[in-house]
Amino acid sequence: MSASLHNVVQGEEEGLRQYMTQFAKATSNILNLHLVAAMHALLIGLCLRKFLDTLYVDPPINMDELRS
């Protein structure tokens, strides 16, 4: 279920690339995942405050833009 994505959080010592890999693995097991729900869970799980603040100022329009 997409609700389980809220359990995927970035650890304090975990790099962004590691977190994105962990998140991608979790999303690959969810059928009919809504992109809005996935993007929300991804942002909530981020630990990098500066990066997160940047996303709020200029939010991505889709997952590809968010990944880049």
State the secondary-structure class.
mainly alpha
For the report, how would you describe the main beta sheet?
none
Sequence stretches where pLDDT stays below 50 over 5 or more residues: none
Relative strand content: under 5%
- Count of all domains: 1
Radius of gyration, in Å, reads 11 Å
Separate helix tally: 4
How many beta-strand segments?
0
Order of H and E elements:
HHHH
- Mean of pLDDT: 84
> What is the CA–CA distance across the termini?
25 Å
Helix content: 40-55%
Gross morphology is globular
Q: What does this 3D model show about the protein?
A:
By secondary structure, the protein is an all-alpha fold. The protein has one domain. 54% of the residues lie in helices and 0% in strands. The protein is globular. 6% of the residues are buried. The model has no long low-confidence stretch (mean pLDDT 84).
Structural features:
68 residues; mainly alpha; 0% strand; globular
Task: Kindly summarize this structure in a few lines.
By secondary structure, the protein is mainly alpha-helical. It contains 4 helices and no strands.
